[in-house]
Specification:
- The protein is of the alpha/beta class.
- The chain has 30 helices and 14 strands.
- Strands 1, 2, 3, 4, 8, 9 and 13 form a seven-stranded mixed β-sheet that branches. A three-stranded antiparallel β-sheet has the order 5-6-7. The protein has a two-stranded antiparallel ribbon with strand order 10-11.
- Helix 20 runs antiparallel to helix 21 and helix 22 packs parallel to helix 24.
- The termini are far apart.
């Protein structure tokens, strides 16, 4: 299960806006001033409940300042986890107060826990540091009160420095102060601080979320903060991101992606202040990455929120919640129908007091109901193959339930439907593929074609709902390839590669596709691309060798077959193919050696006996050749024996065994052998050519030629 914790981020965004006394900041770039930063991120507390990604958020914000705003590394003080102690932070604040000059810009960034000390009634919002105690904060010393921090920042403001204060300190987590502590900490941070700009991750009655859903493991606020400052928030495209623009961007993105929960970032200060400068190349790369982004929904930490739900709940609500939680932890999400997490969740009545908790439960249940689908889809997003034996039907069912739980207003509504349609379509496609493989069929029957057509329609709608999902393009390529529509398959494979260019399987499938289109150069090109991405890709190496074999470039074929043998020396087919190459090079003894090796590995491989027979015929040992062709014939599926029957007719003719020769010649014609021009010039048939039976067979099967 993907668990996501909640937290609030403190951002002190500093600039001073009065026209007299302290100068107004209008730009983060100013050659006459220094930029300083104190950045704190604590995920791993010594005693207090841990967060997940606060340290990562802080680290990436420091990187943003250094790389995007060109802040000297020595001017950035980053305190992560155990380094985030009162001594270190206060020492740096003291140092800043000594060195800061008028018009300098100071960033203060805190990502961690904020709370109240519950042992006293006084308003005493605290930012908890690494060694904060879990029982009574005031028994220890490792914290900074919001009022103390304000005094430090006021001192800097009096020196005419500009302050950028960024805060993410409102997290669910079962702290001493409970829900009241979280709300009042945010309220204290939101209160007006003279001539200082602030960005807060949420309002006083809300929580701040973090999880794998954002950037593989980030805080929702911090993730969008950095992307917005890098240019996604630059709506007027003037290469500068103002406080107004970043506020608008954050409120749109964060509110949307927190739904059904509530998280609304807050900005305080001069809305015209420029906080970020846009690098064109950075923004272009960011947009390209976002275009390929695959949004997921992750669980969030419910500790603390659930305590609030139970605080005033009646006995029935408590019972339903306990049963919900028990089944949730056991992963009984939707089954059995009347005793599962979904069943008991639907039993809990929504009241104004428990509304926030119900929202978190709704999100968490919807998140876990997507896990089976993600087991199938996630590998395709990483350039890997999907495990075929997963429960596709249940995955579709649970996706649809998740969609219903989240409601039509959720930003993932279209994506969830797209994924459900994809899973339905590819499951049908896999079933048809399995049947045709088992029956050794290439062409589809009428019923299978109707199923393919229905699922192409599903996938096209899925593509409309989630146009940048590479797995949908890949599925459309697969389904058209299965239906022998190579040009359509090519179109969608190329779309897929355009989105996800590092999936070796896609290039491999393209190689197979171009073989059906008889584009030899493309066949070789795409198999080689697959091998570059996956050097030990056995099937691609094998097929590349076969492609050179088809082009009669036998030296290159031998080279790649030998590479394949080093990867898998137990595959009978590769020795059989080598036998064929050696035969075409007139190395009959070598051909016999490799045919026998193939047979030793797989005594039921008909092609190995056929190649052994061909090699013996090259040595004019027609008796041994005939024996092996007969063995191949006995092992081959009936619809694959045409050439065997013709070759046996030739061999028996060479041995002047006319009766048997004519028998197999007739069988070859019955099975569809129709190369009349070859029959006319094939000297192997000379010993039966003048017989009445031979002439009668030609008249019967080629009447227009006689």
């Amino acid at each position: 299960m993907r668990k996501v914790l909640l937290y609030c981020l403190l951002v002190f965004s500093g600039s001073v806006y009065s026209q007299r006394g302290v100068e107004t900041v209008t730009n983060v770039e100013n050659n006459n001033r220094n930029i300083w930063a104190i950045i704190v991120g604590i995920s791993n507390y010594l005693e207090v409940k841990d967060l997940q990604y606060a340290d990562q958020d802080a680290t990436l914000f420091a990187q943003y300042l250094e790389k995007d705003l060109s802040v000297p590394k020595n001017n950035i003080k980053l305190f992560i986890n155990e380094e985030a102690t009162r001594f270190n932070i206060v020492d740096e604040l003291y140092h800043l107060n000594e060195i800061v000059k008028p018009n300098d810009l100071v960033y203060i960034y805190f990502a961690g826990h904020g709370d109240l000390e519950a042992k006293i009634a006084k308003e005493n919002a605290l930012l908890l540091l690494y060694k904060s105690l879990s029982v009574s904060y005031l028994k220890g010393t490792d914290f900074i009160s919001v009022m103390e921090l304000k005094q430090w920042l006021d001192n800097l403001t009096e020196k005419k420095a500009q302050i950028v204060f960024i805060s993410d300190a409102c997290h669910a987590g079962g702290l001493i102060g409970g829900a009241e502590g979280q709300e009042k900490t945010t309220a204290a941070l939101t209160s007006e601080w003279k001539n200082q700009t602030k960005l807060l991750s949420c309002q006083a009655n809300e929580l701040s979320f973090e999880g794998k859903e954002w950037g593989g493991g980030r805080g929702l606020f911090s993730y969008h903060l950095i992307e917005g400052l890098q240019g996604l928030a630059d709506t007027d495209e003037d290469k500068g991101v103002s406080l107004f623009e970043i506020q608008s961007y954050l409120q749109t993105q964060v509110r949307k992606q927190a739904f059904p929960n509530r998280q609304t970032p807050v900005a305080v200060g001069n809305l015209d202040q420029i906080l970020g400068r846009v690098n064109t190349q950075t923004l272009l790369s960011l947009k390209e990455r976002k275009a390929k982004n695959y949004p997921i929904l992750a669980s969030v930490n419910a500790k603390g929120i659930e305590d609030k739900l139970l605080a005033n709940a009646d006995s029935m609500t408590r019972y339903f919640y306990v049963q919900y939680k028990r089944n949730f932890d056991l992963k009984n999400y939707t089954q059995p129908e009347n005793n599962c997490a979904l069943y008991f969740f639907n039993k809990i009545s929504v009241t104004p007091e428990n509304e926030d908790a119900i929202r978190v439960m709704r999100r968490n249940l919807a998140a876990v109901l997507q896990e089976k689908a993600m087991e199938i889809i996630a590998p395709l997003l990483e350039g890997k193959e999907t495990y075929r034996k997963l429960d596709w039907i249940t995955a579709v069912k649970e996706l649809r339930i998740a969609k219903e739980i989240l409601g039509n207003k959720h930003y993932l509504n279209n994506a969830l439907e797209a994924r459900a349609l994809f899973l339905e379509a590819i499951n049908d496609c896999n079933n048809i593929y399995d049947v045709t493989e088992k029956e050794h069929r290439i062409n589809l029957n009428k019923s299978e074609k109707e199923i393919i057509a229905k699922n192409v329609t599903k996938l096209l709608y899925s593509e409309k709902l989630e146009p940048n999902a590479p797995y949908i393009q890949f599925a459309l390529g697969l389904i058209h390839q299965l239906d022998n529509n190579p040009l359509d398959a090519e179109k969608y494979y190329l779309k897929y590669i355009g989105i996800l260019p590092n999936f070796a399987k896609a290039y491999y499938n393209m190689g197979i596709l171009y073989k059906s289109l008889k584009k030899s150069e493309k066949v070789i090109e795409y198999y080689k691309k697959a091998i570059v991405l996956k050097p030990n890709y056995y099937d691609a190496i094998f097929n590349l060798a076969s492609a050179y074999d088809d082009l009669q470039e036998y030296d290159k074929a031998l080279e790649y077959y030998q590479i394949a043998i080093k990867i898998d020396s137990t595959d009978a087919e590769i020795y059989n193919n080598l036998a064929s190459v050696y035969y075409h090079q007139n190395l009959y003894e070598k051909s016999i050696e490799y045919s026998r090796k193939s047979i030793s590995l797989n005594p039921k491989l008909p092609k190995a006996y056929e190649n052994l027979g061909i090699a013996y015929s090259g040595l004019s040992e027609f008796g041994k050749a005939t024996e092996n062709f007969e063995k191949a014939l006995s092992l081959s599926p009936k619809d694959e024996t045409t050439s065997l029957c013709y070759n046996l007719a030739c061999l028996y003719s060479l041995q002047k065994m006319q009766k048997k020769s004519l028998k197999y010649f007739e069988q070859a014609l019955q099975k569809g052998f129709n190369n009349f021009e070859h029959i006319k010039i094939d000297t192997d048939l000379d010993n039966i050519r003048q017989t009445p039976q031979f002439k009668a067979l030609l008249q019967k099967y080629f009447p227009e030629k006689n």
